[in-house]
TrEMBL record:
Keywords: Oxidoreductase. SUPFAM superfamilies: Pyruvate-ferredoxin oxidoreductase, PFOR, domain III (SSF53323). It comes from Pseudodesulfovibrio portus. Coiled coil: none annotated. This is Indolepyruvate ferredoxin oxidoreductase subunit beta. It comes from the Bacteria.
């Protein structure tokens, strides 16, 4: 256990996006590699529109990630990426959506929605290892909007910061997802890897 490289992954999105499904799938991928994994939901209102935050930790005993401790930040919604930046360690990896799903406060006009350029600027102050994807568009191209999350997981696996690559995620999709949604998610994985390398 002591020779396992510790990787702390912080995931954030809004309810209804499938953040927790993505968390479970990533944890199953880690497990299948024979690596110790802990995952947890930090807090979240899983109803549509609420903030959902979760963690996947490889080789760590605690499921918690403190400020400045996350090696990888996956933001399924850009405003949530910006909100979660304090958890990212300096120089960590960010994979973020560029497509907004504004929270209720923004939709009701009580809060301003930042521009993507502002979010990119905030991220670049923390790290130069950042990738941005139109995950909902990619999901739709693959056949289901929620599969955009798998595209982002594929990009994270291809970025080289995890102790495994996209083929491990592919195997986990085949082993854990219902057969009727496997093809869509495998296509999303392929598109996510391609988007990272574009």
């Amino acid at each position: 256990m002591s020779d396992v490289k510790k990787v702390r992954i912080f995931m954030t999105g809004v309810g209804g996006q499938g953040t927790l499904t993505a968390t479970t799938l990533l944890a199953q991928t880690v497990l299948a590699q024979g690596l110790p994994v802990t995952s947890g939901e930090i807090h979240g209102m899983a109803q549509r529109g609420g903030v959902v935050e979760s963690t996947v930790l490889i080789g760590c005993k605690s499921p918690k990630i403190g400020l400045g401790e996350a090696d990888i930040l996956i933001g399924f919604e850009p405003m949530e990426t910006m909100r979660a930046l304090p958890y990212l360690k300096q120089g960590g990896l960010v994979v973020s959506s560029i497509e907004f799903m504004p929270p209720l406060a923004v939709a009701m006009g009580k809060q301003e929605c930042p521009a993507i350029d502002d979010i990119k600027k905030a991220v670049s102050a923390c790290t130069d290892k950042a990738y941005y994807m139109a995950n909902q568009t990619i999901g739709l191209e693959a056949g289901a909007v929620q599969s955009g999350n798998v595209a982002m997981l594929g990009a994270v696996c291809a970025a080289g910061d995890l102790p495994f690559g996209p083929e491990a995620l592919e195997a986990a999709i085949k082993a854990n997802l219902p057969e009727k949604i496997q093809a869509v998610n495998l296509k999303a994985l392929e598109l996510g890897v391609a988007a990272l390398n574009a």
